Amino acid sequence: MIEAGVATAVHASFSGQGAMRALGATMSQLDDGFCELEMPFSAAAAQQHGYFHGGVIGALADSAGGYAANTKLMPARECLTAEYKINMLAPAQGELLVARGRVVRPGRSLVIATVEVYAKKDGVEQHCALVQMTLFAIDRLPIESRPE
Amino acid sequence: MIEAGVATAVHASFSGQGAMRALGATMSQLDDGFCELEMPFSAAAAQQHGYFHGGVIGALADSAGGYAANTKLMPARECLTAEYKINMLAPAQGELLVARGRVVRPGRSLVIATVEVYAKKDGVEQHCALVQMTLFAIDRLPIESRPE
Amino acid sequence: MIEAGVATAVHASFSGQGAMRALGATMSQLDDGFCELEMPFSAAAAQQHGYFHGGVIGALADSAGGYAANTKLMPARECLTAEYKINMLAPAQGELLVARGRVVRPGRSLVIATVEVYAKKDGVEQHCALVQMTLFAIDRLPIESRPE
Amino acid sequence: MIEAGVATAVHASFSGQGAMRALGATMSQLDDGFCELEMPFSAAAAQQHGYFHGGVIGALADSAGGYAANTKLMPARECLTAEYKINMLAPAQGELLVARGRVVRPGRSLVIATVEVYAKKDGVEQHCALVQMTLFAIDRLPIESRPE
Q: What are the pLDDT digits (tens) for A99-148?
């Protein structure tokens, strides 16, 4: 379970990510320390062989891990990605990409998260990437002084 | 300097990356072991505060490092990204993102590359991300058996 | 369960690691795709505040992940570490360091593994580091031509 | 050039690292944002084929990057390793290991550094590893309350 105020802040922030919107990504699950994002296959998500682009996989994972971390921080604080590392496990082929982010350690300044990314083809998930990332917690800017 | 056959193969492969096309990325330089990509700011590249999305920065870097590696492999072979690690150095704000990939070690099976990413604001570049990556070299599929 | 020939080859290789011997590390568990190593605290394992040194934690994790991978490769083949990434989760304080390596994807050329490292203090384990790594599989040299 | 107070604090801290002492590592250069460490080959630094152990290479790099960062922080503050990522470029064979750490971005809370590691054989250096790391800056404990 997650507090309504946290969920509201997370969804509002996610809606503001133009990159996720352009790729058609949606937030399919949110829980305390957990976030699942889904993204349909499209030309905008593809590399040269018709699979999901490795960088797009990283982008979805970055957001999934970041919002998993934000469930521990929002609404008072939020996180910035300090770094992430992604291993490709298999070619990401299919109709849907699913990224599941989990907080491993919710520190005061640094939050560590892992993200598993799956490609769903004909309804069957294949584990295609694994991410380990570090997020840096900061106080949130008051709404009126945030860049829009 | 780079052989014409190599440059042709690299440009053809890059043109086939739907993700790069959707983000408006272009290949601005190509040399032996080096590749520079540029991407204009757009809503499709943004996170919630109006900066370039960390995942999009990773995606541009992934392609820049990959094509730097491909100058050592194409046209007979090509690389797949095995993994990459990205550190964010500063918020990526500005009108243009520039990623410069360089091969550090051109192994037979594994190619190691680094990528520096800069955000250009009012014409001034700021170093905003640093990437270290591992690429895995494979034989290229004959054109007729490649997924389109 | 693991075949006797695999276990013998893994133990023989581990016994040959001078670095692990100098740190007093022992192999406490071995299973298919899994390896657990233990290392007692000592001055040779310490950093300046009396905790386990971050680099020593990485060294133990490197070996644990490597031998987890070797259970999938030995005796005919073996792995080299291509790269690893380690996140420190908490100061590693206590009488014992325990690293548990697990294979995530046993590819033909690249094996991906994760390693969790725990510090045991007064018998209680604390999760202190998380590792994600890539190993490269090669054919083993015949015994007579191996460097000793 | 580096202030005497900084150099004194760095050397004192490095002398306290039992792991570096056990491996015979010495600090061969120190400058603003830069640190070079050297380590002779020994059984305690070896893996099973008689090369430098990948984890030991990581350990030397961790310390080199950490003290490069500390030149920006000490004596008032110091850094902890948040994470590092190391790519092996070539088997590390020779009589000496040399790690050169450089600060890429000296942030207030997070310091980013890279480390190049070379193996010196018959006096010739070969580039054998590349590291990218994140350090977290903290206030130093007063001497009387530090763990010894």
A: 999 999 999 999 999 999 999 999 999 999 999 999 999 998 665 554 44
Q: Which residues of B touch C82 (CB under 8 A)?
A: 82, 110, 134
User: What is the 8-class DSSP label of residue A141?
Assistant: P
Q: Give pLDDT tens digits along chain D (148 positions).
A: 789 999 999 999 999 999 999 999 999 999 999 999 999 999 999 988 889 999 999 999 999 999 999 999 999 999 999 999 999 999 999 999 999 999 999 999 999 999 999 999 999 999 999 999 999 999 986 655 544 4
C-alpha span between A45 and A22 (Å, rounded): 10
Q: Work out the minimum CA distance from D22 to partner chain B, whole angstroms.
A: 30
Evaluate whether B81 touches A87 at the Cβ level (below 8 Å).
Answer: no
Q: Which of A45, A55, A80 is closest, CB to CB, to B63?
A: A55
User: What ipTM score was computed for the predicted complex, to two decimals?
Assistant: 0.93
The phi, psi pair for C29, rounded to 5°, reads: -155, 150
For residue B48, name the pLDDT band (cuts at 50, 70, 90): confident
Whether residues A110 and D85 touch (CB distance < 8 A) is answered with: no
Q: What per-residue confidence (pLDDT) applies to B136?
A: 97
Residue B38: which residues within 8 A CB-CB, separation 6 or more? B25, B26, B28, B96, B97, B98, B99
State the Cα–Cα distance between residues B52 and B43, nearest whole angstrom: 9
Q: Is the dihedral of CA C133, C137, C138, C143 positive or negative?
A: positive
Among the partner residues D48, D59, D86, nearest to C13 by beta-carbon distance? D48
What's the Rg (C-alpha) of chain B? 15
Of C85, C87, C104, the CB nearest to A89: C104
